[in-house]
Amino acid sequence: MTETGGNAPISARYVTVACVFVTCLILSNILAVKLLEFHGRVLDAGNVVFPVSYIIGDVLTEVWGFRAARRVIWTGFGCNLLAAAAIQVAIHLPPAGFWGDQKAYETILGFSTRLLVASFCAFLVGEFVNSAIMAKMKVLTEGRWLWTRTISSTVVAEALDSTVFVTIAFAGAGVPLWNTIVTNWGFKTGYEILATPLTYWVVGYLKRTEGVDVYDRDTPLVPIEFHRPAPAAQP
Known about the structure:
By secondary structure, the chain is mainly alpha-helical.
């Protein structure tokens, strides 16, 4: 296994991990329509699968680096936007006269504009912060103590994700904001901690089979990286 810089080749395993990431993201937004309550604590059903996207984000950054993770984050954002648009088109298509489930279809799949904005903003903030912390801490620790960066990045990123999503989606709607934010953050963070052994196994397997271990020593840890043209050669 060789340490490399901020770029890593795209492989079949990378594509597979990226597909799982996008699938979890789209599923979580569909499931999030349902709110759950456990002993007075409120969280959305998207938590069944959404924390997996953070675990996969950790794996992407740890193995292939920030640039590779950023590519998948933007791909997931685009696919989620496409899914939301397609659902809206389907909702507004005229139903067959004998089909009596249009109202239920709209209730379950008909995300409000507010909910979509909340989801998209929270996703971008949380995922990029998570990946940036992972990349930075990997360099600072020289690749040691993986658990410190997976958990630390999740604690910060999930706090931001939950705060942004709940505030935009439910402020003024009668939902207990602080209760919902803390519950979602606690659940997602606990999910990550419990998944640490699995994360270690997946990261180890991919590093061995891919033969790559990216350190983002000089990578700009920003959502969009603008490349400046190389200066022209002097005659």
